[in-house]
Each structure stands twice: as C-alpha cells, then as structure tokens.
Design brief:
Layout (H helix, E strand, L loop, with lengths): L10 H10 L7 H7 L4 E5 L2 E4 L4 E4 L2 H4 L8 H13 L12 H13 L6 E5 L2 H18 L7 E5 L8 H6 L17 E4 L13 H19 L4 E6 L15 H11 L3 E5 L13 H6 L5 E4 L11 E5 L1 H8 L16 H16 L2 H17 L7 E7 L2 E6 L15 H11 L2 E2 L1 E3 L2 E4 L7 H24 L4
Parallel strand pairs: 3-13, 5-6, 5-7, 7-8, 8-9
Antiparallel strand pairs: 1-2, 2-3, 4-10, 9-10, 11-12, 12-15, 14-15
The chain binds 4'-deoxy-4'-aminopyridoxal-5'-phosphate (PMP).
4'-deoxy-4'-aminopyridoxal-5'-phosphate binds next to helix 6.
Protein name: Aminotransferase
Pfam families: Aminotran_3
GO molecular function: transaminase activity
Length: about 475
C-alpha cells in the first residue's frame, strides 16, 4: 500500500505536504510519487495518521519519544511555562529559572565532574559546539594546532556542515554537498558482525585500538584535539563495540591529551537503561557528553553539551575571555521546563529500571528472528535494536541496494500497523521506554511476519 492510498480522506493535506514541505533526507523520486504519511495524533507508543489509522511506533519518533506521547502533565508544564515566561534571553549574564534548575539536575545525573552544561537547540548544535570547544580548550592551553577531530565510520553526529562531515554513514557521503574533509579523520566502525573473518572479539578490539594509535603517530598528537564516539553507534547500524573498546580508546585519548566526546544524543535518558551510558554501561567518564532527543522525550527541541569542571576551569582562565558561541534559543525556558518534567516523570515512574527489564525481554524475543533465512544478524542493547538482512548468511553479503528489502519490510510492517525504520539493509527500532511486554510481542511477531512475506516475494522474483 502506498502512503497515497491511505491518505485519500485527507488528500488536500497530503497534497500540501507533497507540494511544499521539503523533508529531511527526501528521496526525490519516491517522494514525488508517494508523498509522506501524515500523522495527526500520538499517545504513548501509538501514532494515528490523518485518516485515523493507528500504528505502533517502534521507532520512537526519531529515537526520542522516551516517556511516550500525549502526556497531560508534560503538556501542562509546557503551557504553564509558555504563559509565565515563554522566552528570555540567555546570553552573557541573563538566565531563567528553568534553565538553571535543569543545568543543576543534569550535573547531578552526569558522571564524574561533568558539572557544566551548555544548552543548544538539538543534537547537531550540541556536537557542533562540542567540537568547536575542543579547539577553544586546546588554544587556551597554548596548543592552537590541536584542532583535528577523530571520528569513526558508520557514525552519525548531526546535519550541520561540521557535524555531517564528522559523521560518516555508509551511503551518506553525498558528493553534491561537498562535506568538509580537512582536519577530520575516520577510524573503522567497531562492528563485530563485520569484523574480519576468523578474528575473535579481543583481537578485533586490539586492531581497532592499534588503528587509532597508528593514526595518532601519523597525524601527530600535537594536532589531534578530540575523539568523538557514540557509545553505541545508532544511525550507523546499532553497533555495540567489542568489550573494553571504549575504555581502551579513552585511555589512548588520556595518554595523548585528546578530549573524549561521548555523543549520547541517542544512548542517554533511558534508551539502554541509564541516564547516560558512558560510565554506567562502559565504565568511562568522558570529557564531554552531547545529548538531546530523550532529554525532552521529543516534546520540544533541546540539546546540551555537558562538560567537565576541568575544561571549564581552563576555558575560564584569565577571567576576561569570551565563550563566544550560542543560539537565540540556548537555554530556552519552555524547552528546559520540558526537560525538567521529563526527568521528573522518568524518576517517578522508574523508567530506567523499566527500560532495562522490558529491554532485556525485547533482546530475547528479537533474537528469535535470527533464524529467518533473510536475517544475517540481530543485534541491540535493551531498547535500541536492529535486524540486518543479507543475501547470504555464510558470506554476509548484502542484497543489491536496488532490491530495497528493508524498505519493503518496513512497508509490510506499516500495512500491519507497525512503524520500524528502514536504513540501508537494516530495520531499526527504538521504542518508547513505556513499551509493555505484550507490545514487544506484537512488534517482534509483526516484524517476523513482514520479513517472511518479503522473503517470499524475493524468492518469487528470483532475487533470492
Ligand atoms: N548525534 C547522534 C548520535 C544522533 O543520533 C543524532 C540524530 N539522529 C544527532 C547527533 C543529531 O541530532 P539532531 O537531529 O537533534 O540535530
């Protein structure tokens, strides 16, 4: 079924969107034909389209609707703040109560001495700011050459000119946009499924760490200022690194005076059962954490760079230097109020523990899909997971891109009232933390049925 087919009752709305709204990552051809699926309502884990059809949103918006949609108390908090103080300038030496309270709360929840919070408008602007802070920090310390940034393949860090260049997802290097390349280096993705044949996890980890050390030897520690990593790569394919990898990369950073930025735009606020994954799951206290998404559960835009007292002390040295960066909406009182309410709800309802419990069940149930012939790998941690399709389970060779099996699988799910995200050869899920065990069963059974259906089609078409 095309989107157009089930948007008939709202054709005018659908047509306005198709004719005028330019969506992120538009695929021009299919969009011209099909337009978009337009939602008008959401509650808990469910979405309703303009025709009243209901879908279970296993994507969680865009990895972000952590507490679930349609929360009255969240709407009330936002409305109350909008009425009382809907905006205030946050520049230089003016602030607002909501931002002060949220900054203090984040300092309490963040690991180690990460006690300084700089609010931004979302994930991209948080990462962009963090990377510029790397240069700032080293410059102040008398190392103006330490501006290079090390990132990894299959990473996604945002969509500003700088952050899209720092990230590198397969298939995203769109020539037309002419990404920035100087001063940015990409190491291999720590993807265990795609590690060299016959190599065990420890040896793979050694290889990845050696690659970083080789790069430092080649480029020079005097030029590399920062290393950025999602603790679990999200948009690049739910890549859970080998045991010990992040700790060892962090130690390399320490040895060479390279700041470690943990991009926790996805992994924070309960996605894998913790406020932040860096320390709780991987045993590291980074120098900076970037976050967004689950910080407000997507109700309003907000991002943050949370950084160490050590960085603050260095940057503030001298007393008369300016931290010359920021946005009109930095520290927006309505966004910060939403952040406070979001954390309050998560604490009161014990959503971290719940994400761990239901997340483990999700892992267990999803693992059963690994038996399907089209499925090469099922992987994930708690409430972030994916299923990877392959042409051949032995060689792990993917199907030709033009087969588009992940889109066909997600379309088949959609027809059965389930949203999962197609990405390359993956179908990705990050449901709200309030998902129940019964809903996990629904997601896994429906996805399984969709995969079987598409497999049958591919066999009929002679593709498999
Ligand atoms: N970092 C990571 C790890 C992300 O997944 C994303 C968004 N998917 C971003 C940064 C960018 O965040 P935003 O879209 O809010 O700018």
């Amino acid at each position: 079924m095309t989107h157009a087919a089930h948007a008939l009752a709202n054709e005018a709305l659908w047509e306005k969107d198709r004719a005028h709204a330019v969506h992120p990552w538009t695929n021009f051809g299919p969009f011209e034909e099909r337009g978009s699926l337009i939602f008008t309502r959401g509650e808990g884990c469910y979405l309703w389209d303009a025709d009243g059809r209901r879908y279970f949103d296993a994507i969680g918006g865009m990895w972000c609707t952590n507490i679930g949609l349609g929360r009255r108390e969240m709407a009330d908090a936002i409305a109350e703040q909008a009425l009382r103080l809907g905006y205030s300038n946050f520049f230089v030496d003016t602030g607002n109560d909501a931002a002060a309270l949220l900054a203090a709360k984040l300092a309490e929840l963040a690991p180690g001495d990460l006690n300084r919070v700089h609010f931004t408008t979302g994930g991209s602007t948080a990462v962009d700011t963090a990377i510029r802070m790397v240069a700032y920090y080293h410059h102040v310390r008398g190392h103006p050459e330490k501006t290079h940034v090390v990132s990894r393949e299959a990473s996604y860090h945002g969509s500003t000119y700088l952050t899209i260049s720092v990230g590198k997802r397969y298939g995203d290097r769109i020539e037309e946009f002419r990404y920035k390349e100087d001063g940015i280096h990409h190491l291999s993705s720590p993807n265990l499924y795609r590690r060299p044949a016959g190599m065990d996890e420890d040896a793979f980890c050694d290889l990845l760490v050696a690659e970083f050390e080789d790069l430092i030897a080649r480029v020079g520690a005097d030029r590399i200022g920062g290393f950025i990593a999602e603790p679990i790569q999200a948009s690049g394919g739910i890549v859970i690194p080998p045991a010990g990898y992040l700790k060892r990369m962090w130690e390399v950073c320490r040895r060479h005076d390279i700041l470690f930025i943990a991009d926790e735009v996805v992994t924070a606020f309960g996605r894998i059962g913790h406020w932040f994954a860096s320390e709780a799951e991987f045993g590291i206290v980074p120098d900076m954490i970037t976050t967004a998404k689950g910080l407000t559960s997507g109700y309003v835009p907000l991002g943050a760079v949370i950084f160490s007292d050590r960085i603050w002390a260095t940057m503030a040295e001298g007393g008369h230097r300016w931290f010359s960066t920021g946005f009109t909406y930095s520290g927006h009182p309505v966004s910060c109020r939403a952040g406070l309410k979001n954390i309050e709800i998560m604490e009161r309802e014990g959503l971290l523990a719940r994400a761990t419990d239901v997340g483990r069940y999700f892992e267990e149930r999803l693992a059963t899909l690994a038996e399907l012939p089209l499925v090469g790998n099922v992987r994930g941690r708690k409430l972030m997971a994916c299923v990877e399709s392959v042409a051949n389970r032995e060689t792990k060779e993917p199907l030709p891109d033009e087969v588009g099996e992940s889109k066909r699988i997600s379309d088949a799910c959609e027809a059965m009232g389930l949203m999962v995200r197609p990405m390359g050869h993956l179908n990705v899920m990050s449901p709200p933390l309030v998902i129940t065990r019964d809903e996990v069963d629904f997601v896994v059974e429906t996805l399984g049925q969709a995969i079987r259906q598409v497999t049958d089609e591919l066999v009929r078409e002679g593709v498999r």
